[in-house]
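User: I'm writing a tutorial on reading structure tokens. Could you give me a worked example: one chain, its sequence, then its tokens, then a sentence or two explaining what the tokens reveal?
Assistant: Sure. Here is the example chain.
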Amino acid sequence: MEPERPKKISGLSAEQMARMEQEMSLVQSRFRAIESSYSTHVLSLVVARNYVVKLMGNKAVASYLRRHHADLTEEFQTIVASTSLDEGMAVG
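And here are its predicted structure tokens:
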């Protein structure tokens, strides 16, 4: 086990290996960018959810939405009922 010596992977040319390393570097930089903005996005989602909870807690607003926008009411109720970010991630 010599860390200085490049690893040999059978079936890959030097060009393919260089391309894989380049792609891995790109993936890592994209991951870091997403990771750095994650907490901001989570905070925004929490604030938005709390706003929807307040709206749906207002009887006049909830009644109006039920009468005129039943589809939105369903979605808002799903948001209100969710207790974690994963619960609201259902693909429809």
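What the tokens reveal: The first helix runs from residue 14 to 57. The mean pLDDT is 85.
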